[in-house]
Give the backbone structure.
Amino acid sequence: MAKDTRALETLYSVTDAARMLGGVSKFTIYSWMSRGLLERTRVGGRVMVRESSLLKLLEQGNNPEIVRRKEGVGHASK
């Protein structure tokens, strides 16, 4: 049986993640999770946000094409 020796990743509560992203509301964080912009991680009954997910969102924040693609904007609808 192989052991996973990777360092544990930091998890943030939704409130802490909102604070780290410049004070957006926790409802914005939940909205971004629903839209696939942030990955949610469940720990017991709590919803947490991985530090890597926050960093990924910050990196993509300067590229509106990625956000549009995830929201489904720009696709032809008939």
